[in-house]
Design a protein that fits this description.
The chain is of the alpha+beta class. It is built from nine helices and 25 strands. The protein is flat and about 75 Å long. 39% of the residues are buried.
Amino acid sequence: MLVSADPTTELNNCGMTMKTRYSFFAVLILVASLLISCKTMKEYDAAVTAAVDSLRRQHAPDGRVAVFDVAWKRTPKGILVKGEVDNIRAKEDLLAAIGLAGELATIDSLRVLPDSSLGDRIFGIVTLSVANVRSKPAQSAELATQAMMGTVVKLLKYQWGYYFAQLPDNYLGWIEDDAVKVGNKQEVEVWRSSPKVIATGYFGVVRSEPSTSALPVCDVVAGALLKHKGTRGSWIAVELADGRAGYIEVGGVEEYAKWKRSRALNGDNIEKVAKMFVGIPYLWGGTSPKGVDCSGFTKIVYRLNGLELNRDADQQSYMGEEVPLDDDFKALKKGDLLFFGRKSSPERPERITHVGIYLENKKFIHSSGRVKLNSFDPKAPDFDEGNLKRLVRSRRLVGTVQIPEVAQN
């Protein structure tokens, strides 16, 4: 569940909101008027380009969480429209807008994701403790984000040993096929409805037998989900989505259903979880105890308190409610998100590049080099003058949003 301060940017891949549909009709009227007045091919091309750009802004205002990768060109047979979108409505709207010209035929070469070659097997369940999700289908590509064991992702297409996938927070990226168990909707529902445990410690090991000397099956990290297959003394029998089975020590996990019911999103719990990660190294794209970037850190802290945040710092900056900033930080409460970067000016727009969590007494915790605590107090030994100068704003989620079902299940 995404919470946005601007409802026009909230994604709905099952279709557009009524507000957006009204906007589309406005686009049609505008394009029609432009095309009617066209006297040259150059004017016609400009009108088609304007239609494509306008619909891209409506259907995919943020390309990190929506697909509208479209191009067009003139051919002897008409206007060739090619590329990919992630919902049929986007395709229908695009073809309708271009088709208004009437003078030229529209050649449809658009692909609606998920790709038809996947059939009904358009879901994957993560089977690694932490699955890397990259910007391109290659090991050398930038690490965009990560997905924890047990997370259900939507598969959109397949290429070169990677699936282009959409995570529960709608973030898009490429995940290796070895990292997921592919299945259809029914198979995923079986997984979702099965009793599970969630890993609550930093790290754990699933072993082939209920013994610390037994051969490992896999590692797990905080937030990982496994099927609960019963208790054997001080061990829990577990099973992964791909069928691998073993045992994990009782102290490292909790029954998932009980854990969900116990989540209470408040400042004290956020501080407690956040401080668990002090010293964890910074990792661009990281969202796990193996390494976190700034927004990956806030994301895992809130996830372990029951709320799924948007992925990147600028996306998180639209969640919850604005909290005013003053020199003494009197309006801030423990758990508020702090956003850093560049303030807006007449010459340049605002730019958010960093996020942290406010604690109290001018202290905050964030991932910068490593997860650490700093202070806005010039007299404090851990005073962070650089981040104080680039503090842009704060948002409050505690008490302003309802906790939905944890998205990864």
